[in-house]
Specification:
By secondary structure, the protein is of the alpha/beta class. It contains ten helices and ten strands. It folds into two domains: 130 residues, 2-Layer Sandwich (Nucleotidyltransferase, domain 5), CATH 3.30.420; 172 residues, Nucleotidyltransferase, domain 5. β2 and β3 form a beta hairpin. α5 packs across α6, α5 runs antiparallel to α8 and α8 packs parallel to α9. The chain starts with a strand and ends in an 18-residue tail after the last helix.
């Protein structure tokens, strides 16, 4: 089954053709990073306008690259939630138009479910059940994946997401957007023990995260040094902050896995590309004789291949949308 997949939840316009949930025939992403960089973050109005300009031509390029026509497509899938509402609406309406014009099924796909599905492409042998840590710019979740379309949230952030905390800390250090990626690179040559930063804990949420206090701590440290006219040891600040975030993520994630009896662990989302998170989690899983599955680096960020992968399983579960499908800025993965 060949699915044309569309992703436009934030600032990346992405289109792909995926066959039977695991085989990516063609996948392309049109990034807006350079345009948003001058503002220090994504500007929703600009993002949605660029999606309108890019989506049609990108679809033609993907079909050409796959050596396919619309007649060869069996269904169209689209990210409908969560995300920037203006951006989502561009993708949803474009997909609805294709579905109506070609009389093919329209498959609605949740963005976070797609991130999990990126692992099905990288790891063809991976099957539920497993426990997954989803970490990105807007989300930090621990999810129990009971089946391809049956999921339960075990823990989530109470305030900032991990990726958001990275980006805000990077901005305070004067690093360009997107800061998390740059911080990860700079941290490799820094001293992660140079600064003692808090590891926030939620007393009434066993597996929940909180990164706002940690973000405030690094901002206060930077302000304090600037007021004393001290030169910022940026590499050390990046390394110390990265270590604190990763420690919090791994502690909660491995605790949830152990207490719920899971020995198959999966990571997903943009922050799953973080080199320290990957290394330390690999080490933890090796100690405990657990399996760890990671998406390839090119599938960690937003892309349409992961949408097409998850769409196949949504279709198999008879999750088909009608022409009144709407977009939603927030919606639970469950």
């Amino acid at each position: 089954m060949k699915i044309l997949a569309i992703e436009s939840s934030c600032d990346d316009t992405a289109v792909a053709v995926v066959e039977d949930g695991r085989n990516v025939i063609s996948s392309k992403v049109n990034s807006q990073i350079e345009e948003h960089r001058i503002y220090g973050g994504v500007v929703p109005e600009i993002a949605s306008r660029r999606h309108i300009e890019n989506i049609s031509n990108l679809t033609r390029l993907v079909l050409k690259d796959a050596d396919l026509s619309f007649e060869d497509i069996n269904a169209v899938a689209v990210t409908y939630a969560p995300g920037l509402i203006g951006s989502l609406l561009v993708g949803v309406n474009f997909a609805k138009g294709i579905s109506f014009a070609r009389n093919i099924p329209l498959i609605p796909v949740h963005h976070l479910r797609s991130h999990i599905a990126a692992n099905y492409i990288t790891n063809p042998s991976l099957k539920p059940p497993f426990i997954c840590l989803i970490v990105s710019g807007g989300h930090s979740h621990i999810v129990e994946v009971k089946d391809y379309t049956k999921m339960k949230i075990i823990g989530k952030t109470r305030d900032d997401a991990a990726g958001e905390a990275f980006d805000k800390a990077a901005r305070m250090m004067g690093l360009p957007y997107p800061g998390g990626v740059i911080m990860d690179k700079m941290a490799e040559s820094g001293d992660e023990n140079k600064f003692s930063l808090p590891h926030p804990n939620i007393t009434n949420g066993k597996y929940d995260f909180s990164f706002s206090g940690l973000k405030t701590a690094i901002i206060n440290q930077i302000h304090n040094m600037k007021q004393k006219n001290q030169q910022l040891p940026v590499n050390d600040l990046c390394a110390s902050f990265r270590k604190a975030v990763v420690d919090c993520l791994i502690t909660k994630f491995t605790s949830a896995a152990q207490n719920l009896g899971y020995k198959k662990l999966v990571i997903a989302g943009g922050v799953s590309a973080n080199s320290l998170l990957r290394r330390n989690l690999e080490s933890e899983c090796k100690k405990r004789d657990w399996e760890l599955y990671k998406p390839s680096i090119d599938l960690c960020g937003d892309n349409a291949a992961m949408v097409g992968s998850q769409a196949y399983y949504e279709f198999m579960d008879n999750n088909i949308a009608s022409m009144d499908l709407n977009a939603y800025a927030t919606k639970t993965i469950e």
